[in-house]
Amino acid sequence: MEAKKSIFLKNFYQLKKLIGFFSVMAILISFSSCNNAKAQAKAEYDCRQLGQLASANFYEGNLDLAKTYAENAYKIKPFGERYGFLMARILLAQLNTSIENSAENSQDKDKIKEILDLFDYSFNKVSQYMTSDDARVYMVFLAELGDTEKCQTILDYYMQNFPYFPGLGQFASAVYEKNSRYFESVLLAYLDYEYHSSLIQDEKDKTSADNAFLKNIEKLETESNGKPYTQEILNGCQCIKAILNGTDFPQIQSDFSVYKYLQKKSQLIAENSKSDAIKE
Length: 280
Description:
Blueprint: H1 2-59, H2 63-74, H3 84-94, H4 99-102, H5 106-126, H6 132-145, H7 148-161, H8 168-178, H9 182-197, H10 203-224, H11 230-245, H12 257-279
């Protein structure tokens, strides 16, 4: 009996020591996790502070100082990657000569590559941190480099996530045309007209502007005759004419966002016309 009691007590004390050991380990792990969390929070805070200083100096035109702050922010992993877009814009602003002239200089070529790599890496890794200004600079930069395919990708992203700005339709239309997307190019060109015509207050002036735009559309139809992409341009022109004339909107197999938008707009115009007719 005494032997069993002795064994029990021995096991009990061993278990107590073991529990104490795990308690100490738990405290150490908790302490370590707490320290890591504090370190992470401080790193993120420092990164944001540096990023804000970089941005403020960039917009004030202090490019060298902005670059220093941005580089230090960018080095803080994993938070710094969000400032890759700002870094690229600072470097681009420092490149005072045009893209065409810069391409002749090997040093400028290296800088252009560095800027492009920063934009590309940031878009692929942290596109959620890209602002509308970042996207605009990025896609114009790509267009100037002649990379209209990648430019179209950024354009599509912009149009899905950021507000319209005057000139976007014309810019996008030119990019899509260079990529042989003629149907989409025609519809995009209409967006700029729609924006500017919406600012016309006088109804007679609005009608006059619509008629002038329709003449340009008819001219485009005529000039496109006999070309391999004639039907694509005609389809785009028919969509615009349907909107401006209030006629049936053509049903075309397309998932293009602007086509879907114009299709919905045509439906609303038709519904409003029916409602006005009933009131009369």
